[in-house]
């Protein structure tokens, strides 16, 4: 009886150790972020390069829906592939330039949630 309890306790301990292991093995990015947020030191050259790349990506993703090509729209918009981007360009060619960003909802395949998700990436 005592041996059975010991075996059960060891099994539970090993199972708990196995469950807690993934939380201890955090991804390198989250470890780096945690270290950066806790340190008061100046950013390194690599950190500056990553920040510069992210800011250039943010600046480059804003596109004009009345002048952008299908490839530019597909690259800049979240959840829009080349096919939907081509539908936007075709709609624009057929009906003229968009007067507001909400007019994108008139394009087949473009719902209100998809338009709202991409408002930050688009201009007129």
Automatic annotation (TrEMBL):
Presence of the UniProt keyword Signal in the record: yes
Pfam families, alphabetized: HHH_3
Positions of region (Disordered): 34-60
Example GO molecular function: DNA binding
Gene Ontology cellular-component terms listed: type II protein secretion system complex
Stored PANTHER family: ENDONUCLEASE/EXONUCLEASE/PHOSPHATASE FAMILY DOMAIN-CONTAINING PROTEIN 1, ENDONUCLEASE_EXONUCLEASE_PHOSPHATASE FAMILY DOMAIN-CONTAINING PROTEIN 1
Protein name: Uncharacterized protein YbaV
């Amino acid at each position: 009886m005592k041996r059975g309890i010991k075996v059960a306790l060891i099994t539970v301990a090993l199972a708990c150790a196995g469950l807690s292991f993934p939380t201890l093995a955090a991804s390198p990015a989250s470890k780096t972020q945690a270290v950066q947020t806790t340190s008061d030191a100046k950013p390194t050259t690599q950190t500056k390069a990553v920040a510069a790349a992210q800011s250039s990506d943010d600046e480059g993703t804003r596109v004009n829906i009345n002048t952008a090509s299908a490839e530019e729209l597909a690259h800049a918009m979240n959840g829009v592939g080349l096919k939907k981007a081509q539908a936007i360009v075709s709609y624009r060619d057929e009906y003229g330039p968009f007067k507001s960003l909400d007019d994108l909802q008139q394009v087949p395949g473009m719902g209100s949630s998809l338009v709202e998700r991409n408002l930050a990436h688009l201009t007129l």
